Amino acid sequence: MRLLVDAGNTRVKWQLRNDDVIVRQGVGGFGPTLFNDLADLESSISGVAVSTVVSEQKRIELTRLLARHVAVPPKFYWAEAERGGLVNAYATPDRMGADRWHGMYGAWKDLAGGFAVIDAGSAVTVDYVGDSGRHLGGYILPGRGMMLRSLKNDAARIGFEDHEVSAGGPGASTTECVHHGLFWLWQAMASRIHRDCHSSGINTILVTGGDAAGIQAAGLQADLAGDLVLAGLAAIDAEEQAAS
C-alpha cells in the first residue's frame, strides 16, 4: 500500500491507498499524533509520496513524523515542466507550489479537457488550463485566515470578532465591515474567474481547500473536489512506480 500526504501550511491530509482503493485517511496539524491511525498498518506500507508547500524546517519535521510510523523514506514530488500532456506555464517550474501542479494534474487526469482549479487554503490559488493541456497561468491571493490576521495584527484599532456571513452588504459594525468586506472580495473574485473562463473557453471550474464552501457561497459556480491534490499525487506516484 502507498501512503499519500498533502502537507499544507496549516494542515496535513493523508490517504493510505491499495491501488485505487482508499484504505484509511486522516487530517490534522503537525504533531506527534498526526499518523497514529496508521499504527496497525505500518508494515503494509511500501512507499510514501508527499506533496508539500511548507518550509524546509517543516519538511524535515514531517519526515521525522513519518519515520515514526513508516520504514521507507518519503518521496517528495514537485512541480514539473510537463507530464502526460499537461504543460506548465512557468519558465522555471520548480518555483510553482507542488500543490498547484498536483491539483491541476488530478483534474487533467479526470477531465482531459480545459478547466480552472481554485484551491482555497492558507492562500487562494487560481489556475487555468486549456483544452490542449497547456497551463494558461493563474493567480495567488491571500486566504481568508491570512487576511483576517493581517487586519487584526497590523491595524491597531480594527477590533472584530468571528462572524459567519452569507452576504456582502455594507456592515453596521467593525466585525460586520471586516467579514462582509472579505465576502465582497470573494464575490468579486468569483465574478472575475467566471469572466476569465468564459473568455478562455473553459466550462469546468473545480474548487478545493478548507475555504471552498465559503467561496462557493460567494457565487463561485464550481464543483467541489475535496481531494484533488491527493488525486494528482496518486496518479503521478503510480506513473513513477510503473516506470521504475
Provide an overview of this structure.
The chain is built from six helices and twelve strands. The mean pLDDT is 93. A hairpin with a 2-residue loop joins strand 2 and strand 3. Helices cover 35% and strands 25% of the residues. It has 244 residues and is α/β, with parallel strands linked by helices.
Structure, briefly:
The protein has 244 residues and is an alpha/beta fold. 35% of the residues lie in helices and 25% in strands.
Specify the overall morphology.
globular
Which class of secondary structure composition applies to the elements?
alpha/beta
Distance between the termini: 17 Å
Could you estimate the helical fraction of the residues in percent?
25-40%
**Number of E-type strands:** 12
Number of helices: 6
Q: Give the strand content.
A: 25-35%
Enumerate the spans where pLDDT stays under 50 for 5 or more consecutive residues: none
Largest sheet: 5 strands, mixed
- Average pLDDT figure: 93
Helices and strands, in N-to-C order?
A: EEEEHEEEHEEEHHEHEH
User: What's the oligomerization state?
Assistant: single chain
Our Rg estimate from Cα atoms comes to 19 Å
Query: How are the strands ordered across the major sheet?
Result: 3-2-1-4-5
